[in-house]
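A brief tutorial aside. Many learners find it easier to grasp structure tokens once they have seen a single protein encoded end to end. The record that follows does exactly this for Serine/threonine-protein kinase pknF. Read the sequence first, then the structure, and try to relate runs of similar tokens to stretches of the chain.
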Amino acid sequence: MVDAEHSADPRFRQWFSRSNESARATTHPAIARIVGHGLADGHLWVATAPVPGHDAAALVHHHPDGIDVDRAVVIVRAVGEALDAAHLRRLVHSGLVTSDIFIHTDADPGPADLRPPGVVTLGGFGLTPPPQDEDTPHPDTDVAGLGRVLVELLTGTTSVARQRVSGAVSPAFYAVLARALDPGPEHRYRTCAEFVRAAELALHLTHTDGEPPTDVMPSPSPHGALARVPDSDAHAAGSPAPRVFGTAGHPGRPAGPVAGPVWSQGGSSIPRSRKAWLVPLFVAAVVVAVCVGAVMLVGSRNAPAPWPPAVSHIADAFPRLIPASPDATGWRDATCAAVSRDGVDGISCTDPENLTYAVWHTAPPGAQQKVTAPLKGYPGDEITWRDGPASASRESVKDGWLVTNFSAPVHVPYTVITTWPDHSGREILDAWWRTAPLG
């Protein structure tokens, strides 16, 4: 139920209806299914199918010092996948908080509830209006929201994101958060998946410079919204779960003990009974290697045709945007093919919505001018982002375009040109560019 003030706002009502209709048409296992919405007695309302379990806010309430890293990563990964799926349908949550995240369990989230969170369901779409200075919220808003949710899960508070690096927060993780919460939207991670991967790496591999890392932490299951966190019994009895934050999860509080690595005390660390297995294991390894080699030789006969040498380096430079072979599909199920324009080599892909993105090798002199020459009104309006110069067509151009260049050495030799018939450059920017895996 929405309060009367917002319900009376025509701008919010329009946003509410549009967002909920989009959410209703979105099918994803981690997005709550909307069964209806409307206006009654001066209040807007939305109803979802019943979601068992409790929300993440209750989890934080019962674990005020934060939950363990593995569990937090599984939750935000599932939520991130749901958000990215919504973004593909041009649906942005824009107001993500822990109370929007439902964790399916069979028991109340009491202090002793350390079992896996089970399936995660995300709700709350269409309840937060866009900021007053923009008509359409962008996916980077959800990246920042997911960052705040991760901090709250790990520390019990969101204020740590605004604190200076201290003993309670690892510098590596703080750097990831700083990018996710950057005031400049163009500086944030492009997708929630990209942010989650960076955060997971920082949380699981970080350690104080000059010191050995803490106890090795197993990677969470990669099964997305249906993934489950490893049981707490996986840790040795009596030893604390590895954590990046202090025991209280807040800056300024002393860090608690962590499980250290087991170091050899000198001499051979292999028991005599296990040494006897070394020779047969070596022989078995050789046999396996031979078998694998035979399988690889046989399989290579049926391998898909590779990209031509003239453009294979383009696919290598953009592995998430361009498929590994012409027979596969690129980002957003785009079909791709090698192309050439006035001697400039490239790979062009077109998705099911008829949006086309082409990656051109523009390192040779004059190549940039050749591939941008057909663009009406080029260079258009400049776009500032952290990875290089970009520009988009002005609103007066019916068939919009967007040109992306790069400053990172691995991508400097390339130019990405995105076109979309009957759509403006701004629409390409909002619907494609802001979430495209260009980095």
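Self-check: The longest helix spans residues 278-300. If you spotted this yourself, you are ready for the next section.
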